[in-house]
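Weekly modeling sync, notes
Attendees: S.R. (lead), two postdocs, one rotation student

Agenda item 3: backlog of single-chain predictions. S.R. asked that every request posted to the team notebook include the full sequence so nobody has to chase files. The rotation student volunteered to paste the first one in as an example of the format we agreed on. Action items at the bottom.

Example entry:
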Amino acid sequence: MATPVPAADLDTRPSYLAAAIAGVAVFVLYILTLSPETAMWDTSEYIAAAYTLGIPHPPGNPFFVLIGRVFAVLPIAPTVAMRINLLAAVSSSVAAAMWFLITERVLVGWFEKRWQRIMGGALAVLIGSTAFTVWAQSVVNEKVYTISLAGMAITAWLTVRWCDDPDGPSADRLLVLIAYVCGLGYANHMAGMLAVPAAGLAVLIRRPKTILRWKLLLAVMGAVVLGGTPFLTQPIRAAHFPAINEGEPTACRDGLKLSCTFSSGTYTAFMYNFNRGQYGKPSLVERQAPFSAQIGMWWLYFRWQWLRDVDGALPGLQGSLAAIFLVLGILGGWVHYKRDPRSFTFFGPLMFTLTFMLIYYMNFKYGYSQDPDLGDSVQREVRDRDYFYLWSFSAWSVWAALGLTFVWESFAALLGSEPVKVGGETLDLPTKRGWAMTSPILLLAFVPLFGNWAAASRHGETDTGDFAIDLLNSVEPYSVLVTVGDNDTFPLWYAQEVLGVRQDVVVANTSLLNTDWYTRQLLRRPVTEYDATKGPAVYRGRAWPKPTGPLMAMTMDQADSVPLGQEITQAQMFVAGNIRAIIQPRFLARADIFVLKMIQDAKGRSLYFSRTSGGYPFELGLKNYVLTQGLARKLMTDSIAGGKDTVLVQGEGWVDVPRTKALAAAFRSPPALERKNKWVDKASVGIPYLYVSTNYVLAEALTMQGDKAGADKAMDSAMRVARATGLGDLFSNATPAPPVTADTAKRTAVPVKP
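Predicted structure, as returned to the notebook:
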C-alpha cells in the first residue's frame, strides 16, 4: 500500500457530477429490467395502498403511501404499477450515488488522482446496485425497503460530511438535517433509524461536547418529530375508510368526525397499530432460533447476492464468490480504518449495526430456504427474508470496493513503482503501466451484474396480475371469495383497486378475519356493479341480480363481540338451507365462525373457496358441497350428485368440467409464466403450481369423459407451466404426480383489542 497522500495537496471536493452520472447509469439498468406489473407477497398491497391513499399492514408506512401516491399519478409510465416500481428504481439509484460519494471520500487520503478515486466510487456503485436483493427490490416495489435504503444512504453521506466539517453553524445544520431525514425515514419504515446508533457514536467520539449544547439537542429532537409527522395522516385517512385500511387506526365507526378522530380511543387504536401489536412478536430475550442459525440465515442470503443460483446447480461457485466478496469487504473495512479513521468512526459502527445488531434485533426463525436437511424439525419463516438485509448488502459495496481497490493497487505496485512529487514530498506510487496491466482484476465487480441478471430482472413479468384476474374471474358475479394468505389476497386487491377488475367480488381473507377491524370493513363494503362486458365469456347472456344489504346480518358491535375462537369437543352439525355439514372436534377460530356466518347470510351471493386454501372447506365438513370451477371451488346449496358435466376426481373432489375447461382456456397467467421461465421465490411457488394442478385435474376429468384431445391439451399446459417454473419434477415420463395442496403462506394475525 502506498504512503497516504496529504489531504492538503489534493482536490477534495466531492465529485457530485460523477456520482450523479453513476446514479443515472444504475437507473438505466433498472429501467431495462423493470417490472411492468405487480409481484407476489406485499407488492400488490403496497401498490394498491399507495394508489388509493390507503393504509397497508401495521405500522402503515405513511411516508411511503404519500410519496407512492405522487408517483402513482405522475404520467411517467403506462401503468400505475410501473410508476411505483420507478419509485423503487429512483430510490436505489440515489443510494448508489451516496455510496459513490462515501467511497470516493475515503479514497481522498489514498490516491492523488481524482480519476482513481472516481474509479473506486464506480466500483462501489457497480457492486452494490447489482447485488441480487438490491437489484430485485429495485425493479419491483415490493414494499418500503428501497426508500429506506435511500434515506439511510443519504444519512450516511451527511454524517461523513459532518465528521469532516469543523465545529460551527454548518456542522450543526448538518446534524439537524440528519435528524430530520431519520425521522422522515422512520415514517417510511423503522429502518429509518438504523443509522442513528452509528451517527450518535460518531458524535460522541468526534465532538462529545456537542451533547451539552441544549439548543442544538432541542433542534435535533424537533427535527426528528417533524420528520415523523406523516403518521398524523393515518387516523384522519382511516376515518375516511379507504378500501385498504389495515389496522383501522381510528375510533370512528361511521365516517370522519373530529370528536373521535382526536379522541383517546383513536390514540389507543393508533398506538396499537404503530407498535405492530397485531403480530405479537416475542421479546429479543426469547430467541426464535439460535443466534448462530440467524447468522447462518444472513450468510445464506449473502451468498445469493453475487450469484443467485436459482436451480442450485452451482453451489460451489456461489460459495466461492461469496467468500471472495466477504474477504474483500473485511479487507476494505481494515483499509478504511487505516486510511480514514475519521469517517470510520461512523461507517464502522454502521456496518456492525447492519449486520450483527440487525440480525440480533430481527430475531428470525430459520429461513425458508435455510438448512433444508432440517426439514420441518425447526420453525421456519413463511418466506425468505433477504429483503430485511437489503441495507446490509448495499452498504457492503463500499467496503468491497475499497478492498478491491486495495488489491488492485497492491498488484499494480508489484509491477513497479516510481517516485512522484506530491506537495513537496516524494512518494513511491505504482506506475501507469502497473495500473493498466492489473486493471483486469476490476472485472470482478461485474460478476453480480452478469450472475444476477436472469434472476433479478423483472422485465415483461405480468404473471401475478394475470393470476389475480384469473382467480377473480373463476367466481360468478357478486360472489364472496374466501382466501387464506398474502399471495391469494393482495394481488386480488391490486386487480380490484388499481386495475378496476371484478370489484363486484368480495374477497374474505381468513387470516385477517381473525381481527375485528377487518370484519368491520367487510360489513361496510358497498356492492359494486358487475360489468359483464369486462367479465369472462362464461358469465355472459345471463342476468345477475345485484345483492342488497351487508355481507352478514350483524351489527359492528355484534361482529366485535365474536371471540377469538371456541373449542369444539364433539362433532356438531352446521345447517344453512339444504347444507348439512358435520364439523368434527377442533378449535373453531374466529375466522371460521365468520366464514360459516357468511354461508348462512349470503343471500343473493355465491360463496367460493380459493383453491389455494387447499382442504379448508373439507375441514368445515363441506366436502360434498364444493364444486371446482377454475381456480376456485363453489359452495353449492345442496349436496352434489355426479352427472354429465360433474365428475369426481380423486384428490380434488367434484369438478365442473365445462366451466373449468372454459375458464382454463381463458387463463392469462400460464403464457406469462412460460415467458418468465423461472420462479425465484420458492415460497410462493404454490401459485404457478395452482395452474399445474388445475390443468392436471381438468385432464383427469376430461379423460373420464372420454375427451382425449382435451385431456392432452390440458396436460400439455400443465407440463409447460411446471417446466417453466421449476416444477418439472412433478412429472416423470410425462406422468404427473398426484395433486398436492397449493396453500399460500399466512400472516399471523390476532384481533385488535384497543
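Discussion: group reviewed the output briefly. The mean pLDDT is 90.
Action items: rotation student to repeat for the remaining queue; S.R. to check formatting next week.
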